[in-house]
């Protein structure tokens, strides 16, 4: 019997990256103005536009506003981003005209390390003054995370990446540092009337995490094939697994078909 | 002011002095004036102060060649074709490059202030992060915020209380006014009016903020043509000091409407850049091993360039293989 397009795929019928893209796409609400970065975020917003969020729009920080690409961009500065866009502009418009002014509902971001408050490091390994490794640096990650209403991080789940404290706070979570003193403060108190929200979810290859009333990360759903305990074992901090709702819904056959035939048929990000 | 002067690539690079503060057009691996960057390295520029919204392939080539002393920015890498900026990382870790980290929005704010002739620009971006940690103000630590260099502000940023609407604390970001804007542009009128295709990135801000501007143009077109649709133009000709006309001058970065990013070329550079020896060998082949831009293009070859050439309607190449399928 033919499987229905809306049926969930079975283990082995999809790859971990497919589930990441689909789980991220499901965070988009119809009508959202979405700020997306290169890679999986592009897959997520384009899949959402084809399924549950047809009137959501996408802004790329290099300056394309509400593009409708017919070929998947390789990066946010790509010529492909501006196809049928409402505006082809620049960073001043993206960061100040759109983000700072308050148009951005949702942002997809990435990171090398994250702590239990959602603070993310994309800058260095080790002490900043004597680093052992440098990553790319902040880019727009902390700006977007400052002023978007909701942000979703897509990351690799590893013990060394889910840490009690990150080596360098590149991007602001729910509890962060007030300068010049460096004391810990809640994001709401620090941002005052500029406060609009913060990290909403973290999606990894093992599960989906959310943040409680205190801004502390907990496991919300666990991907098929993993147990909550396994996820906790892949965190350096004591992850709260008492609120797990169940398993993350796998991709549907329709979502998989769209991903491989409409969103990324050339295999830019999908294998 | 007046009309810009047309000069050669060699003359353009010779204008830039060791220690100058420079900034570039483009975004990561798009619309970077790579031919000028290569020529600056052939002319052995040193101690440059590079201020930019984000780094890319051009940054890595300059850093690999040992031309950068100060890098104020927020990001460096080659996008999908090289995930880190190896030369900047090596310079930061070894201490040969002073890295001052900001966020994208911070750097845009600094350029905006510079481009509007204001001393600073307020914003509420990236507050609460280690970017603002006073211990990590590297130009201050190096003793360079003492006023001796007019291009380096007395403070990395300031925190102020909104005096008008009680919005609370926000940041003031000091203006950036580089000595040079080094720009690659799609089209320039023969009187200097500049037009870029697709995203404008921070090209206009960089041009206005800088004291002097060199534009490397993919093509110079009649001024009468570019003035038929003035709403498509970026800056007037009197904002430009020097023009060099040089097709393919952004290679291996991409130029919307003309050619795509040369992914394989950047992947090879990235692989080489993982060690100083590797970079040196790469530079020997692609920078010092060619006499200039024409020989560089001949070495890449017509077949490769034709694969990169943009579809005239779409503005990007439809003939090159981009992914795994």
Task: Report on the architecture of this protein.
The complex is a heterodimer of chains A (271) and B (325). Chain A is α/β, with parallel strands linked by helices and 271 residues long. Chain A has a single domain, classed as Glutaconate Coenzyme A-transferase (3-Layer(aba) Sandwich), CATH 3.40.1080. Helices cover 22% and strands 22% of the residues of chain A. In chain A, the strands form 4 sheets. A 10-stranded mixed beta sheet of chain A has the order 4-3-2-1-5-10-14-15-16-17, sandwiched between helices. A 3-stranded mixed beta sheet of chain A has the order 7-6-11, with no helix packed on it. Chain A has a two-stranded antiparallel ribbon with strand order 8-9. In chain A, helix 1 packs across helix 2. Chain B is 30% helix and 18% strand. Chain B is globular and about 60 Å long. Chains A and B meet through helix 3, strand 9, helix 4, strand 12 and helix 5 of A and helix 4, helix 5 and helix 7 of B.
Any descriptors?
heterodimer, A: about 270 residues, alpha/beta, Glutaconate Coenzyme A-transferase, ten-stranded mixed β-sheet, three-stranded mixed β-sheet, 7 helices, about 20% helix, B: about 325 residues, nine-stranded mixed β-sheet, three-stranded antiparallel β-sheet, 12 helices, 12 strands, globular
- The best one-word shape of chain A is globular
First-last Cα distance of chain B: 52 Å
Tally of extended strands of chain B?
A: 12
Main beta-sheet strand count, sense and barrel state of chain A: 10 strands, mixed
Largest interface: A-B, 69 and 77 residues
Over the alpha carbons, how many angstroms does the gyration radius of chain B reach? 20 Å
Oligomer status: heterodimer
What spatial order of strands do you see in the largest sheet of chain A? 4-3-2-1-5-10-14-15-16-17
Second CATH tier, the architecture of chain A: 3-Layer(aba) Sandwich
CATH fold descriptor of chain A = Glutaconate Coenzyme A-transferase
Strand coverage percent of chain B = 15-25%
The CATH class designation of chain A is Alpha Beta
C-alpha termini separation of chain A: 28 Å
Shape of chain B: globular
* Unreliably modeled segments of chain B: none
Q: What Rg of chain A, in angstroms, do the CA atoms define?
A: 18 Å
Question: Helicity level of chain A, as a percent range?
Answer: 10-25%
Annotation, overall tally of beta strands of chain A: 17
Strand content of chain A: 15-25%
Strand-and-helix sequence of chain B, N→C? Answer: EHEHEHEHEHEHEEEEHEHEHHHH
How would you spell out the order of helices and strands of chain A? HEHEEEHEEEEEHEEEEHEEEHEH
């Amino acid at each position: 019997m033919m499987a229905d397009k809306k049926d969930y795929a079975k283990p082995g019928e999809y790859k971990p990256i497919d589930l990441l893209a689909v789980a991220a796409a499901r965070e988009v609400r119809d009508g959202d103005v979405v700020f997306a970065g290169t890679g999986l975020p592009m897959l997520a917003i384009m899949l959402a536009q084809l399924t549950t969020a047809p009137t959501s729009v996408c802004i790329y920080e290099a300056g394309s506003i509400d593009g409708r690409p017919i070929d998947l961009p390789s990066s946010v500065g790509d010529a492909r981003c501006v196809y049928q866009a409402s505006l082809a502009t620049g960073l001043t418009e993206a960061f100040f005209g759109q983000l700072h002014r308050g148009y951005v509902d949702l942002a997809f971001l990435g990171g090398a390390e994250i702590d239990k408050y959602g603070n993310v490091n994309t800058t260095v390994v080790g002490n900043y003054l004597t680093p052992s490794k440098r990553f790319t640096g902040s880019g727009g990650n902390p700006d977007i995370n400052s002023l978007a209403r909701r942000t979703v991080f897509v990351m690799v789940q590893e013990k060394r990446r889910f840490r009690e404290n990150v080596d360098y706070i590149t991007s602001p979570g729910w509890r962060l540092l007030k300068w010049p003193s460096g004391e810990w403060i809640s994001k709401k108190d620090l941002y005052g009337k500029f406060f609009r929200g913060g990290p909403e979810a973290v999606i990894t290859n093992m599960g989906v995490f959310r943040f409680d009333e205190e801004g502390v990360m907990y496991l919300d759903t666990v991907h098929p094939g993993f147990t909550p305990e396994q996820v906790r074992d892949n965190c350096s901090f004591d992850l709260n697994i008492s609120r797990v709702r169940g398993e993350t819904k796998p991709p549907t056959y329709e979502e998989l078909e769209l991903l491989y035939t409409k969103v990324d048929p050339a295999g830019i990000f999908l294998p | 002011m007046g009309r810009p002067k047309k000069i050669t690539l060699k003359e353009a690079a010779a204008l830039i002095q060791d220690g100058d503060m420079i900034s570039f057009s483009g975004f990561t691996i798009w619309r970077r004036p790579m031919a000028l960057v290569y020529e600056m390295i052939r002319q052995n520029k040193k101690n440059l102060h590079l201020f930019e919204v984000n780094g890319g392939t051009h940054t890595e080539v300059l850093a690999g060649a040992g031309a950068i002393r100060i890098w104020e920015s927020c990001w460096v890498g080659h996008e999908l074709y090289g995930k880190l900026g190896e030369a900047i990382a090596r310079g930061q870790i070894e201490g040969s490059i002073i890295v001052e980290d900001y966020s994208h929005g911070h750097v845009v704010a600094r350029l905006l202030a510079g481009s509007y002739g204001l001393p600073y620009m307020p914003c509420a971006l990236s507050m609460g992060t280690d970017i603002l940690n006073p211990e990590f103000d590297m130009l201050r630590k190096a003793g360079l915020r003492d006023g001796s260099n007019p291009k380096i502000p007395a403070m990395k940023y300031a925190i102020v209380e909104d005096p008008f609407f009680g919005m609370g604390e926000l940041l003031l970001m000091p203006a950036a006014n580089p000595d040079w804007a080094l720009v690659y542009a799609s089209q320039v009128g023969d009187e200097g009016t500049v037009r870029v295709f697709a995203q404008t990135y921070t090209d206009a801000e960089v041009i206005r903020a800088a004291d002097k501007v060199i534009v490397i143009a993919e093509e110079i077109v009649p001024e009468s043509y570019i003035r038929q649709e003035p709403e498509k133009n970026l800056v007037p000709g009197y904002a430009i000091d020097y023009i060099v006309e040089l097709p393919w001058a952004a290679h291996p970065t991409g130029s919307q409407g003309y050619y795509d990013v040369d992914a394989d070329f950047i992947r090879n550079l990235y692989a080489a850049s993982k060690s100083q020896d590797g970079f040196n060998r790469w530079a020997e082949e692609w920078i010092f091993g060619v006499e200039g831009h024409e020989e560089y293009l001949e070495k890449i070859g017509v077949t490769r360039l034709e694969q990169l050439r943009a579809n005239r309607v779409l503005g990007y190449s439809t003939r090159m293989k981009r992914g795994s399928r």
